[in-house]
Amino acid sequence: MVGVLVVLGLFLSIFGGSLQVTNRDTGNVFKVNKFMRADNLDKLAKNTSFFAIMAVGATFVIITGGIDLSVGAVYCLAAVCGAMFLTRFGPHGIGAGASPFLVVPGAVLVCLGTGALCGFINASGRWPAGASICNHLGTMAIYRGIAFVMTKAQAFTDFPVQFTDGFIRREITFQGASLYPVPLAIMIGVTAFAWWFLKHSVTGRQIFAVGGNEQASLFSGLPVNWVKVKVYTFGGLTAGIAAMIMLGYYGSASSDAGKGTN
Q1: Which residues, in sequence order, are bridge partners of residue 174?
Q2: How buried is 61 (Cβ within 10 angstroms: 0-12 exposed, 13-18 middle, 19+ buried)?
Q3: If we measure between CA atoms, which residue out of 95, 136, 126 comes closest to residue 210?
Q4: For 129-179, how does the pLDDT look when each residue is reduced to its tens digit (9 = 90+)?
């Protein structure tokens, strides 16, 4: 997969041509590659960071031989809960004026906590009868239904600027282009942690063992059910992280968030 992406990037860089851009600070005009330029790569990174982070969580689930069809609904519910919290403390909310040192971490905890709780519920529903696609189809409908009822089919906006521009949309300027590195940095951090966890932690090795042969792992004394709880909870947590980034970047959320990402 990495090789395909590298080849595709080289192809677009070579045959994509070039264009002239103006540095907003100096007024100088110079040529850049249409594909391999800072603002374009930054946009690609932002637009794919949500899905890449959720894909990391889905990778854990798939390694154990499972599948989580409700990840898009978990992402939606986490985004809605975070959006309602942020609107409450926004410029026109009843909590306007609250300290950003409380609002920003609070919004992060709401998104991540909601995602992790939904993932834990998904895992708990698997205990009596093992893997169940029907269970995830059910929770997918339930989570999105809860989000629909909570929002009354309305979008929540008007977030505190400290969360949007001050955190997720923190801007830096490079060669006259505005870049937003926070989503990419979070994606890299989550991916690096997942790689280390799978390769070097005890639970990481147990995840591979359960995926290789669940029955043998059970007879070997591994806590198979507990490993699955951790895996699905982590999958929900990554959906919450993705929802947090989406809220900060787009500044709104509604009950149709995450459709098509299951």
Answers
A1: 177
A2: buried
A3: 126
A4: 444 677 778 888 899 999 999 998 888 888 999 998 888 888 777 666 667
